[in-house]
Structure to design on (736 residues):
């Protein structure tokens, strides 16, 4: 079918909270409108918006057209569509493609009108209705009109191109392509012709087939898709012919590979592979979620620069261009639906089934996708039996639609290893933030070992780990929650070796590759931004932590001098840090050699480097690689490098450093709210001292599973509350 862009000449009408719940096209002319082009979203940086808008457009018809679809790559979050005043369809879910058939008699008119009501208000039966990212609203991806003949591939089949392709291998090492055509207007005169081209463009399989049933094509000795080593892609072209005349065609790329996983890790084509991964959201500064293919390509160029071999496409279906880039570059992709808070509402589960079906069928031909994620942190508030049942149903759907791929889930650190949520999917990821939200950076290794000892058969990895960094903030002594660039870099240096040292993990995903929009956040001196990215939201600046991973993963000779933005210094003796994949690094200060130090863990640290008052030129070299910067030493500290506490700086310490709250084997205020409420005796202590809080958490099912009760009680402190007294009572209750 032919695609005609419909991205211009729309009229946007804003609906207020007082507008009628039921909006009909005949009422729209009474509302003022503004001309807009697509993509277009409600929310802007710093100005989140949850509401309703109507987009309207006149579309030119043609008497020669006999079949057509309105194609929406995404509408955020729910929508209804009218064609010439008659409701033509609706869609719930803001990230997947869907198509609406246009009647023949409408297509052949001189023109027809399209009205689309987009609604991103909180909807209890559509995911996501919770999450640390902005739900932008609007139409963030392109819209087009597909037109063609009566006999055609069904573009409305779950938003696919009407052709589902699965690949596998036979016992003799040959490749199999399982084709499932969905065709409108198929009869005895229609022929389905399929040709398969290898990575060099040579025909290796194909033939003519009836158009009414699934079929299997064989490819002898296929070149395997081997990730970055060799991302070999085959092209499958499917044509519909009537009386030997081409009436429609679809072309998709596929690859041949196997992916397996167990408690010993992940295997690609039978060979162990450790995922050195990053996670990414779709939005960027200036564009929001409406990133162009060129901007998506730039994202993957940055991912290539650090030589990551995997990406978690969080927390929803991304644009097709993202999966195409993964295929072409050999990057393994974790694809997932936006199930971030699971309730007992059966309509929410129905929507999850719909979104998972669309995700799988629209992307099943991509060899880069190695798993389908069915949930992220749903046990943040509680771990309940209905969640296990719903997740088992979603896992079963994965296996029904795509039996050769892995199902996956991302849980959060406080969820106990023995939870049934860790038994459902083929692989499990944990989102872990020791040294940021709790604990110390060095806790990763011991926690991983404890988990593995308790659940050795669980195929475990880390789906999120990271800390925020504001590039305006710096410290000679970086510490927890100072939001400095130096703490982020030091944290990753400390944490990643603990992950990498455990080969039974399938790997990890850094949270996050890029800073991203989160309208619920105001911390670290930045409004509406989650600043855990290795790269800034506008993709202009690579943070120092970016170069740490480049030093660990890239094979191209490279050297980076850290803390260039930490220009103003007050100490006359400082540490100089570099990241490199070379064997050693030499340092010069103001043209005077300081020494040479071997590289360890991708890092070199020159200690006690003397600075003179005024400007100092710092130069480093490693073979042919060089880098330099200028630091200014002065008598006064630069005040802008530290964040005032009242502006979201370090979390206030409400206790004396020497106080010890934990008593081995007993509860304390450092235990999570969920664990305390599960124990009858501990729950009585909380009911005695904070009854209102207990009622809110239990009656509204908002137990903050990941937070210690100490953090909850001191977030908005009540001076009359005897926190130490509560702790003493909890210290008398055995923690079994």
């Amino acid at each position: 079918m032919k695609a005609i862009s419909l991205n211009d000449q729309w009229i946007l009408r804003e609906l207020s909270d007082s507008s009628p719940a039921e909006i009909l096209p005949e009422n729209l002319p009474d509302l003022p409108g503004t001309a807009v082009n697509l993509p277009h979203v409600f929310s802007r940086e710093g100005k989140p918006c949850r509401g309703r808008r109507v987009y309207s457009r006149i579309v030119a018809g043609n008497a020669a057209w006999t079949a057509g679809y309105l194609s929406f790559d995404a509408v955020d979050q729910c929508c209804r569509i009218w064609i010439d005043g008659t409701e033509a369809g609706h869609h719930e879910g803001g990230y997947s493609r869907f198509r609406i058939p246009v009647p023949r008699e409408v297509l052949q008119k001189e023109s027809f009108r399209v009205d689309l009501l987009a609604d991103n208000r909180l909807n209890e039966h559509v995911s996501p209705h919770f999450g640390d990212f902005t739900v932008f609203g609007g139409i963030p991806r392109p819209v087009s009109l597909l037109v063609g003949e009566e006999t055609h591939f069904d573009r409305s089949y779950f938003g696919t191109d009407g052709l589902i392709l699965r690949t596998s291998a036979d016992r003799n090492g040959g490749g199999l392509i399982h084709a499932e055509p969905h065709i409108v207007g198929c009869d005895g005169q229609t022929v389905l012709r399929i040709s398969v081209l290898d990575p060099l463009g040579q025909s290796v399989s194909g033939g003519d087939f009836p158009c009414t049933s699934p079929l299997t094509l064989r490819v002898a000795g296929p070149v395997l898709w081997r990730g970055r080593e060799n991302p070999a892609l085959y092209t499958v072209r499917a044509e519909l012919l009537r009386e030997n005349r081409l009436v429609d065609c679809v072309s998709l790329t596929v690859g041949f590979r196997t992916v397996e996983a167990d408690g010993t890790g992940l295997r690609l084509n039978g060979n162990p592979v450790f995922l050195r991964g990053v996670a990414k959201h779709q939005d960027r500064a200036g564009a929001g979620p409406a990133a162009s293919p060129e901007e998506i390509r730039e994202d993957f160029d940055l991912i290539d620069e650090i030589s990551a071999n995997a990406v978690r496409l969080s927390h929803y279906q991304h644009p097709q261009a993202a999966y195409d880039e993964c295929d072409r570059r050999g990057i393994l992709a974790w694809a997932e639906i936006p199930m971030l808070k699971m309730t007992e509402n059966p309509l929410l589960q129905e929507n999850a089934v719909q979104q998972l079906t669309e995700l799988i069928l629209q992307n099943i031909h991509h060899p880069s996708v190695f798993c389908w994620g069915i949930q992220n942190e749903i046990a943040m508030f509680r771990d309940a039996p209905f969640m296990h049942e719903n997740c088992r149903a979603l896992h079963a759907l994965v296996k029904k639609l795509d039996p050769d791929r892995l199902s996956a889930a991302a849980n959060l650190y406080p969820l106990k290893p023995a939870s049934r949520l860790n038994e459902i999917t083929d692989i499990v990821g944990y989102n872990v933030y020791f040294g940021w939200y709790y604990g110390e950076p060095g806790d990763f290794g011991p926690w991983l070992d404890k988990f593995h000892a308790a659940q050795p058969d669980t195929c475990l990895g880390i789906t999120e780990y990271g800390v925020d960094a504001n590039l305006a903030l710096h410290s000679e002594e970086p510490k927890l929650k100072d939001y400095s660039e130096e703490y982020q870099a030091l944290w990753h240096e400390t944490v990643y070796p603990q992950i990498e040292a455990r080969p039974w993990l399938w790997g990890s995903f850094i949270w996050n590759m890029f800073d991203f929009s989160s309208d619920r956040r105001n911390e670290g001196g930045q409004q509406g931004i989650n600043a855990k990215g290795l790269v800034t939201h506008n993709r202009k600046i690579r943070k120092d932590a970016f170069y740490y991973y480049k030093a660990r993963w890239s094979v191209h000779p490279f050297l980076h001098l850290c803390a260039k933005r930490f220009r103003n210094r007050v100490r006359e003796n400082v540490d100089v840090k570099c990241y490199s994949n070379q064997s050693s690094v030499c340092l010069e200060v103001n043209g005077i050699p300081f020494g040479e130090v071997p590289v360890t863990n991708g890092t070199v640290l020159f200690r006690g480097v003397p600075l003179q008052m005024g400007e100092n030129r710092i130069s480093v070299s490693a073979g042919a690689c060089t880098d330099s910067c200028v630091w200014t030493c002065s008598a006064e500290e630069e005040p802008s490098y530290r964040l005032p506490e009242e502006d979201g700086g370090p979390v206030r310490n409400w206790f004396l450093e020497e106080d010890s709250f934990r008593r081995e084997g007993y509860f304390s205020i450092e235990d999570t709210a969920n664990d305390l409420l599960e124990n009858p005796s501990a729950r009585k202590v909380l009911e005695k001292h904070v009854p209102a809080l207990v009622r809110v958490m239990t009656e509204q099912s908002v137990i903050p599973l990941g937070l210690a009760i100490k953090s909850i009680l001191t977030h908005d402190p009540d001076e009359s509350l005897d926190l130490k007294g509560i702790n003493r009572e909890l210290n008398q209750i055995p923690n079994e």
Observations:
- The radius of gyration is 28 Å.
- Residues 346-363 form the longest helix (18 residues).
- Residues 35 and 279 are 36 Å apart (CA to CA).
- Confidence is low (pLDDT under 50) at residues 646-659.
